[in-house]
């Protein structure tokens, strides 16, 4: 029996730590928080702001096991992460497991290495209540904001919506950027590029120092240049340096993993968590760039050994942010002798961290920058060629250079040929190209993290969940935007001749960037209009500062909550009572056929177009928007086109053919089968021939690829990846199979494994009643329709075994269901027959904003 029990949050971390501790230690995992606010109800006493924590249902068995382990141990070591969340986990464990101060110790380490863990055990401390209170303040404040603001959205916008403090501010950033893009007016100018030849016929690319606003000015310059002798007016060479960036924080790791590896924020944090738990890197939630002396020495030894002493330049970085949490270190490798690891995805992220840390301790790169001025006194402007040579690569040897998204791709520095002042150059070609200014870029995940950090909103632990939440709530989307086309003028001078041509260029397309959804915009506008302070960037940052003051012991958390709630709650009551409903309604114009108003707005089933008024005797008619359209920008002409859908075509193979648009986009309906129309194809352009082509493609895709026991097997790709279908069973195909070339043996293996799993799934099944007793991940359970119910214990307080459940009657199972849901088998009342509507008196029409939501 172990004298010491160590409790950490994750099983992977427990496994790694167990390797470093002897037989006197037993390491167990709490699997994160064992207690939290209840899932139903607010769970907070609003008079005292005391939270009502409870052990979640899926953790009760684990807590029982931990209590049993605690009884056997002499000392319990609480070893959760060293941030506020980790401190709160330790505090909940101590409270729930009834740990006495003399029988518990709190230890922290920012890396899972033998030295770090043994050092932590030598230097234990007690639970830091200030850090716990900072976590409680965040949890309680965010629960109150969400629970009180969300019902206002249900009442004033649309049922089922939700709001959150940091998430709502993140959505606001995306919405404001989109509005900025819509309002942006591109401005054209002419940029001139020249290619010149020296005596040795070597090319020198140069740009004119000034752009021209007007086409005639650009043409006039080219006309002048046509008869001008170009000379080298000046050659200037300047020494310069480039220095490495600081080691990674959470935010900079997320940004760099996005630009270099294409990883999204959630994936980056998942991989970083694994690297930390398996002992490869230091703690991955940090806003500090500090490195320990041990790390600086380790990097120096590695650099000197691998690259030479001249590459080593040890330096310390300090965190500029005054709100950086606790005394964390930057994210770095725990052992510089480990350069890569087995898992490919893990290794890519590890090597990024490894090289960035190493580079931060390396010498600056030395460069030589050359600027050549080309022109003639007769010309109003001169050309400039820039080039640079790396004299000493320094940190670039380890890390290289990456251009940021907003850097101009044309500004590539290059090596220039030797020229002398006064040397005559021939022009090979000079081109004036019409270029348009571009609006600010939409946010990528990494760019949004950077912006949140700049504004002081959120903390390292909140970036990934915030970005995931605003997508899950469907307030923002990362859909692809098709580019538009515009004409640009290009004027070229070559061989003494000027040639003008009009070309087409694509612009405005975007991929993998955040775009607000219609509902996201409407919710944002409602919240910013009615809760301006809560969504104010400065206010949100100030709240974060208050959490920091609580963490340092300079502020009491319940006093902070009292001050916040005394202003917040009256605003909730006022908005609930007095604010108008919001549906983003826009009057687009008048329907030329009926003379009725046409509106774009949010309806019960999402964004839509409406012809007519709610209170008209003749009910309005509706049309759904297509992908890429939104209520804020759709034009009247495009809205009218939507009412041409759905339309019927001729029957095909004795089944009806309809073209329409639904919640998943435009489709061809053939009989009862819905077939998506390919992306970018206009449903209104689909004729009989094209519809039959799409149906034929679907038939081919759905054709059996094999047979199993005489039954056909088909395949496809769904939201969970590739699958095969046998009878009515969908079977996921794991990556280890070659999906495009599945053999009969592969199919037999997949189907048999699924059938065996399905056979073991049901203990008893009553299909007519839609009731079954099933084996689940956590043991047997009852399924009734889509609802799941627990199986009660027997009279002797023991659990039913699977064999015993095979003998249980349907009536007994129904009693178990009724005990948990008394209305489960109650007959549903038939809706009352609608009374004929009384004829309305003619009244003045209400203002659009006041109209109740339409029903489809």
From TrEMBL:
Sequence segments annotated as region (Interaction with DNA): 162-167
Domain Toprim, first and last residues per copy: 3-112
The alphabetized UniProt keywords are: DNA-binding, Isomerase, Magnesium, Metal-binding, Topoisomerase
**Active site residues per record:** 283
- Stretches with biased composition (Basic residues): 847-856
* EC number in record: 5.6.2.1
Q: Where is this region: Disordered?
A: 824-856
For site (Interaction with DNA), what residue positions does UniProt give? 33, 138-139, 142, 154, 285, 473
Pfam families noted in UniProt: Topoisom_bac, Toprim, Toprim_C_rpt
UniProt xrefs under SMART domains:
TOP1Ac, TOP1Bc, TOPRIM
Name the Gene Ontology molecular function terms of this record.
Answer: DNA topoisomerase type I (single strand cut, ATP-independent) activity
Locate the Topo IA-type catalytic domain: which residues? 128-572
Q: Establish whether keyword Metal-binding is in the entry.
A: yes
Which family is this protein grouped under? Belongs to the type IA topoisomerase family.
- Note the HAMAP family from the entry: Topoisom_1_prok (MF_00952)
Q: Which NCBIfam families match?
A: topA_bact (TIGR01051)
Subunit-level organization: Monomer.
Function according to Swiss-Prot or TrEMBL: Releases the supercoiling and torsional tension of DNA, which is introduced during the DNA replication and transcription, by transiently cleaving and rejoining one strand of the DNA duplex. Introduces a single-strand break via transesterification at a target site in duplex DNA. The scissile phosphodiester is attacked by the catalytic tyrosine of the enzyme, resulting in the formation of a DNA-(5'-phosphotyrosyl)-enzyme intermediate and the expulsion of a 3'-OH DNA strand. The free DNA strand then undergoes passage around the unbroken strand, thus removing DNA supercoils.
Kindly provide the name given to this protein in its UniProt entry. Answer: DNA topoisomerase 1
């Amino acid at each position: 029996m172990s004298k010491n029990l160590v409790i950490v949050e994750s099983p992977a971390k427990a496994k790694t730590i167990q390797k470093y501790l002897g037989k006197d230690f037993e390491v167990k995992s709490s699997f994160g928080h064992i207690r939290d606010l209840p899932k139903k109800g607010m769970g907070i006493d609003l008079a005292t702001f005391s939270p009502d924590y409870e052990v979640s249902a899926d953790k009760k068995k684990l807590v029982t096991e931990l209590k049993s382990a605690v009884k056997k141990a002499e000392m319990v070591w609480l070893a959760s992460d060293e941030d506020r969340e980790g401190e709160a986990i330790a505090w909940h464990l101590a409270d729930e497991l009834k740990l006495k101060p003399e029988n518990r110790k709190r230890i922290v380490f920012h890396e899972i290495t033998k030295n770090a863990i043994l050092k932590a055990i030598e230097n234990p401390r007690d639970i830091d209540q200030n850090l716990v209170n900072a976590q409680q303040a965040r949890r309680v404040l965010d629960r109150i904001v969400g629970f009180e603001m969300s019902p206002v959205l249900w009442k004033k916008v649309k049922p089922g919506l939700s709001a959150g403090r940091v998430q709502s501010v993140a959505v606001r950033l995306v919405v404001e950027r989109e509005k900025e893009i819509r309002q942006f007016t591109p401005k054209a100018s002419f940029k001139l590029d020249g290619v010149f030849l020296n005596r040795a016929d070597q090319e020198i690319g140069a740009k004119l120092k000034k752009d021209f606003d007007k086409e005639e000015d650009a043409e006039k310059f080219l006309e002048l240049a046509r008869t001008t002798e170009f000379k080298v007016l000046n050659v200037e060479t300047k020494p310069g340096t480039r220095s490495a960036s600081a080691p990674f924080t959470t935010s900079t790791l997320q940004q760099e993993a996005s630009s270099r590896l294409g990883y999204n924020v959630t994936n980056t944090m998942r991989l970083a968590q694994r690297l930390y738990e398996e002992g490869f890197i230091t703690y991955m939630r940090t806003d500090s760039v500090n490195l320990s002396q041990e790390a600086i020495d380790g990097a120096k030894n590695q650099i000197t050994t691998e690259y030479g002493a001249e590459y080593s330049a040890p330096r310390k970085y300090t965190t500029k942010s005054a709100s950086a949490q606790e005394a964390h270190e930057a994210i770095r490798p725990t052992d510089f002798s480990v350069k890569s690891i087995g898992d490919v995805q893990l290794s890519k992220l590890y090597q990024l961290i490894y090289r960035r840390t190493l580079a931060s301790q390396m010498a600056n790169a030395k460069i030589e920058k050359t600027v050549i001025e080309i022109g003639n006194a007769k010309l109003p402007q001169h050309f400039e060629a820039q080039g640079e040579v790396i004299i000493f690569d320094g940190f670039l040897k380890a890390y290289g250079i990456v251009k940021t998204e907003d850097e101009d791709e044309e500004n590539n520095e290059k090596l220039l040929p030797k020229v002398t002042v006064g040397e005559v150059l021939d022009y090979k070609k000079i081109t004036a190209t019409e270029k348009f200014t571009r609006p600010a870029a939409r946010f990528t995940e990494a760019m949004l993290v950077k912006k949140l950090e700049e504004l002081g909103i959120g903390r390292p632990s909140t970036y990934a969940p915030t970005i995931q939440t605003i997508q899950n709530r469907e307030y923002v989307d990362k859909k692809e935007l098709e580019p538009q086309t515009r004409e640009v003028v290009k004027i070229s001078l070559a061989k003494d001749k000027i040639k003008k041509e009009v070309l087409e260029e694509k612009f405005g397309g975007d991929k993998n960037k955040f775009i607000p959804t219609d509902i996201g915009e409407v919710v944002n506008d409602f919240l910013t209009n009615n809760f301006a302070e809560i969504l104010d960037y400065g206010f949100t940052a100030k709240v974060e500062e208050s959490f920091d003051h609580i963490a340092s012991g300079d502020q009491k958390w319940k006093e902070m909550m009292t001050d916040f709630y005394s202003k917040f709650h009256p605003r909730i009551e006022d908005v609930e009572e007095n604010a108008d409903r919001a549906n983003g309604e826009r009057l687009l114009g008048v329907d030329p056929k009926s003379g009725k108003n046409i509106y774009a707005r949010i309806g019960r089933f999402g964004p839509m177009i409406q012809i007519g008024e709610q209170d008209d005797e003749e009910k309005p008619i509706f049309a759904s928007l297509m992908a890429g359209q939104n209520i804020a920008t759709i034009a009247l002409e495009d809205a009218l086109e939507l009412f041409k859908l759905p339309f019927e075509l001729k029957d095909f193979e004795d089944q009806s053919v309809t073209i329409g648009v639904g919640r998943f986009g435009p489709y061809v309906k053939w009989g009862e089968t819905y077939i998506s129309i390919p992306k970018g194809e206009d449903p209104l352009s689909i004729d009989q021939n094209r519809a039959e082509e799409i149906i034929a493609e679907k038939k081919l895709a759905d054709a059996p690829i094999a047979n199993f026991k005489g039954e056909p097997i088909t395949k496809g790709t769904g939201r969970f990846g590739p699958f095969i279908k046998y009878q009515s069973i969908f079977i996921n195909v794991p990556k280890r199979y070659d999906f495009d070339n599945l053999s009969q043996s592969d199919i037999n293996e997949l189907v048999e494994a699924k059938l065996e799993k399905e056979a073991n799934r049901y203990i008893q099944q009553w299909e007519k009643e839609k009731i079954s007793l099933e084996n689940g991940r956590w043991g047997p359970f009852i399924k009734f329709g889509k609802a799941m119910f627990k199986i009660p214990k027997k009279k002797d307080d023991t659990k039913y075994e699977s064999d015993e459940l095979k003998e249980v009657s349907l009536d007994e199972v129904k009693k178990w269901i009724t005990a948990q849901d008394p209305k489960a088998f109650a007959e549903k009342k038939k809706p009352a027959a609608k009374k004929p509507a009384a004829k309305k008196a003619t009244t003045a029409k209400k203002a659009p904003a006041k109209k109740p939501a339409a029903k489809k």
